[in-house]
Every structure is written in structure tokens, then in C-alpha cells.
Amino acid sequence: MHIAVIGAGAVGLATARELAVRGNRVTVIEASRPGAGTTGTTFAWVNSHGKEPQSYFELNLAGLRAHHELDAALGGGPRWFRPTGNLEWATAPEHAEALRTRAARLRERGYAVREPTPAQARELEPGARIPDGAGAVAFFPAEGHVLTGEFLARMLTDALACGAVLRCPARVAEVAPRPGGVRLLLEDGSAVQADAAVTAAGRWTEALTATAGHPVPMAGPEAPGSAAVGHLGYTAPAPVRLERVLTTGRLNVRPDGGGRLVLQGLDLDADADPAAAPAPRVAEALRERLAEVLVGGAFAEVAEVRVGRRALPADGLTVCGFADPDARLYTIATHSGITLAPALARWAAEEILDGTERPELAGFRPGRFRGGRPDVHLTQARLPGRQ
Questions:
Q1: Which stretches of 297-366 are DSSP H helices?
Q2: Peptide bond into 53 cis (omega under 30)
Q3: Rounded distance, CA 88 to CA 135, Å?
Q4: Segment Disordered: which positions (predicted)?
């Protein structure tokens, strides 16, 4: 079977690899370069604990488990998945109460949660500046983070080794599904004919699927302050000891390899504007907060602040399934792309190749938008560190 995959981010390359290792002919079409879209500006925290409703929690839990399984199955070489857990603490009373409530709810769901004392948490993460008076502390040991460059490299090289072809840069202008196949018209005038196509185009999903007559509405990724827009800070190598994701009321931070860190202060996102350079105050605020959170943070240099644009479906929940009645156009769009990539890739391959309908995806089909664009409050992009 010949399958075209549109988009070479985390989801697209994971799907291409899954299809290729199963012996299919795969063509990946990428408009810019691998990882240039959403994957290039993501905090890359693999977790399920802040995800609601229950069905979305379970979907992300399956994604978390899939990372553990894939990491164990492939082994060897640079490891993209760092399952070192997530340590969260709260000093503000409202945040502390929410953290305790969330930990109790997750424990009831069977999610791995520990509630160490501040002293025990500092033993776990010696560089963390956790005050003795912290109102609540929780450790989620099954969670982790992904080094996105390492992940993309493994997915791409595996796919190419199995015969996949990468066309890059090449932009798809139109998708035309029809009985028996799908035709992709590229902006350079060439075309790709395949038995099926997978759109893994992130924030470009709506425009792309609209050309096929089956639009999947996405939250606007261009509007300043949108839930789909946010800042990420990247440090130069810094004298900071950090093993895992840390989430606090003012800063989320994780290692990024080579002594570098990725920083996120969600309250700073209100002014994030994709059309403008980030204000210098954002970098300064992130550095100041890092000094508050980690020993050595005062000596870190925030080398770059990027404005990321999240791939956020209009109702905040993942989209995964066939968009057309002839089952030729398979669409994946999700804010949880890093967490879900291995699981969605496997399920998509099963549904495309075998016609198997995965029950996990029952509430996440593209068909739910056929009645028009929903008018709901988007929350999924704002959950980490803000509960």
C-alpha cells in the first residue's frame, strides 16, 4: 500500500515510521524541514495528569505508556525519552489546594503519584529550591520529557531505512480523496498519487483539510494571546543540575541536553504574538524565575525566546481518524503531539492498513465537526502549572 504522510513533525514522522516498518510504501511530504512546525516549539512534557475529560486523560495515559514501550523496544543509541518524572510544588494557597486535589483524583484513577515532604523532594532533585513552607509537593514518577531532535532523528532514519521517501521542501496545495485513492497536488505543480494520505500538518490542518472538502477546525494560531500561542525560553549551557521536569506556579522547566534548559511561564503568554519578536522582558522574567527555582539559575543565560504556535483543534481535544467517507484521508491533529505520537502512529497504521477501529479513538474522530465550528472555552493549552 502506498501512503502519503503530510508533515514531518513528531506525529508525522512517527506515523511514517510505523507504516514503513510494516512494509508499506511511504512518501513523506514536508513544506519546510523536519520539526520546523509545532515540534520545534514544544515543551515536550510527556504526561497525562492534567488532561480532562476522562477520555482525554486515558488517551494521554496510553500515549505515556507507548513512549515507555517504544523506548524499551528500540533501546540502544541516543535516548529521546527521559522517563525521570515530574516534580511539582506549590507555594500559593490556591495552587496548593488544587495540587492536593489533583493528586488525590489521580491516585483514585491508578496514576502513579507520590507526595514527598519538601526535604524528601530536595533529595530527589538536589538543585531545586523547594521551600520548607511549600503548601503541597507531588512527584509523578512515570512521566518524562522528550528530546525532540533525538526523537525526530530516530523516527526519520528508521522510516528511510525501511524505504520511505522524504520530499522536502515540498508544500501540498490541494488534497483530493476519491474512491480508490487520493491525489495530492503540490505547489510546484507536481502531484503525488497514493492509496491513502495522512495529514499530520499541525496548525495548518484546517486549511489543508478544507481543500479536500472535510475541514477540521483549529484554534487560531496567529492571534496574539490565543490559547494556541505561547513563549518558550531556551538557555545556553548553564551550571544547573536538573534531571526531570519541574512545574511550579511561576515556571515550568526541563532539561534539553548538553546543560541547556527549556523554560515556560504560562502567565507570560498573554502578550505572545507570532508576528512580533518577543519582548526582552520575557527573557528577563524567565531568567529571574529560574533563579528562584533552581540553584545556579541566576547564572543562566536565556539565549533565545521563541513564540510557539500550538496545534490545537477548535474544541481543545485530539482529532484522529478518517475525515472522508471513502476512508482515504486520515487526519491527526492534537495539542498533545509529543505525548501521543507513538500511540497515535500505531493506531493510525492499524486503522489504515487493517480497517481496525480502535476504541480509544471513538470520541476523537474528525466527524464531530461536521455540524460546524464549536464555540467552547479552550483550556488544554493552559493546564500545566496553572491548576
A1: 337-354
A2: yes
A3: 11
A4: 363-387
Distance CA 76, CA 148 (A): 17
The arrangement of secondary structure in 86-143+229-309, i.e. its CATH architecture, is 2-Layer Sandwich (3.30)
- CB 84 within 8 Å of CB 376: no
Q: Report pTM.
A: 0.94
3-class secondary structure, 194: strand
Q: Rounded mean pLDDT of the chain?
A: 93
Q: Return the C-alpha cell found at 69.
A: 514501550
Query: What is the three-class DSSP state of 105?
Result: helix
Examine residue 169 and say whether the peptide bond preceding it is cis (omega within 30 degrees of 0).
yes
Tell me the three state secondary structure of residue 276.
Answer: coil
SS3 289: helix
Kindly list the distances between the CA atom of residue 19 and the CA atoms of 183, 208, 321, 365, in Å, as whole numbers in the listed order: 19, 22, 15, 20
Predicted confidence band of residue 56 (pLDDT cuts 50, 70, 90): very high
Domain boundaries, the chain: 2-45+149-221+313-382, 86-143+229-309
Give the whole-angstrom CA distance, residue 45 versus residue 24.
31
Measured between alpha carbons, how far is 270 from 297 in angstroms, rounded to an integer?
24
pLDDT at 380: 47
* Architecture per CATH, 2-45+149-221+313-382: 3-Layer(bba) Sandwich (3.50)
What strand order describes the sheet that includes 196-199?
Answer: 165-167, 25-29, 2-6, 196-199, 329-333, 319-322
Between 84 and 375, the more confident residue is 84
Helix, strand, coil percentages (3-state) for the chain, rounded to 5, are 35, 25, 40
Residues 139/118, Cβ–Cβ less than 8 Å:
no
What are 43's three cell numbers?
515543551
Geometric angle at alpha carbon 245, from 131 and 74, rounded to 5°: 150
CB 293 within 8 A of CB 251: yes
Question: Can you give the pLDDT at residue 68?
Answer: 94
**What does DSSP say about strands 196-199 and 191-194: parallel, antiparallel, or unpaired?**
unpaired
What is the Cα 59 distance to its own chain's centre?
13
